[in-house]
Amino acid sequence: MYSIGFLGAGNMGSAIMKGIAASTLHKEINLYAYNTSPEKVEALAPYGVQKCDSEREVAQKSQFLFLAIKPQKFEEVLPKIADVVAEDMVLVSIAAGIGADFIRKLTVRNAKVVLAMPNTPLLLGVGATALAKDESVTETEFAVVRQIFESCGITAEIAPEQMKEIIAINGSSPAFIYLFAKGFLDYAEKIGLPAESVKKLFVQSLVGSAKMIGESGYTIDELIRQVSSPGGTTLAGLDRFYAGKLTDIVDDACMHCTKRAYELAK
User: Fold this and answer.
1) H or E segment at 129?
2) Residue 173 and residue 118: Cα distance in Å, rounded?
3) E strand segments, 42-110
4) Sign of the dihedral defined by the CA atoms of residues 9, 90, 56, 76, in that order
5) Which of 70, 84, 183, 263 has the most beta carbons within 10 angstroms of its beta carbon?
6) How far is C-alpha 58 from the chain's CA centre?
7) What does the pLDDT look like over 174-211, one tens digit per residue?
8) DSSP 8-state symbol, 110
9) Shortest CA distance to 4 belongs to which of 62, 53, 46, 60?
10) Alpha-carbon distance 186 to 178, whole Å?
11) Residue 192 φ/ψ, nearest 5 degrees
12) Model's pTM, two decimal places?
């Protein structure tokens, strides 16, 4: 049996715990959690989550401790558990911009750390989580962490020094995609198309397009050409995106996202 603890039971932490409970992992895991709002942990009782009364208590009970708190809270919270971080404990951080050295500085010098960048689709079991393991973390320990995140989506291993750059790609990108989608749905509303039908068609178009990117074997440019008949409607719209330098805007947004990650790490 593994003892898995969570410092924080917000949306992301709760989604991971629910994913564990819904998977075959629940037979091998004891789940513990602490949150400053106890009712959030109490709401997870049906998923087998046991409530702890302090940060220290959840740390003392955990082999794997998930740091599911906001980056700004690390300096306040981690010193409270520093003296109970055991040598064989694995700390799993899901906080944007926080590096392993910063976590060690606030806990113990040789702490085992796994950095994770999940995204909110974990709430529906279709998350995408980037993971980076510290050299002191064994392959067996890393496999446990990976299996936990794969209980609510897919994972990919990234080099630790690239974890700030990956945030824009999978951590923040859902928000960027939602904003892009809002433009289409707002346009449909403006011209009087039926909202439910539009949402159904556009959502499926997103799903289908994602599958084409991932499974068709074609490059992005080839996929664009397949939809773009010469002189047709798609090219008329694409010309406006090109004129507005859409890909440059995306690049700029990602750069600013990464810049903020480095600021949070200071």
Assistant:
1) strand 127-133
2) 11
3) 49-51, 64-67, 90-93
4) negative
5) 84
6) 22
7) 999 999 999 999 999 999 999 999 999 999 999 999 99
8) T
9) 62
10) 12
11) 85, 20
12) 0.91
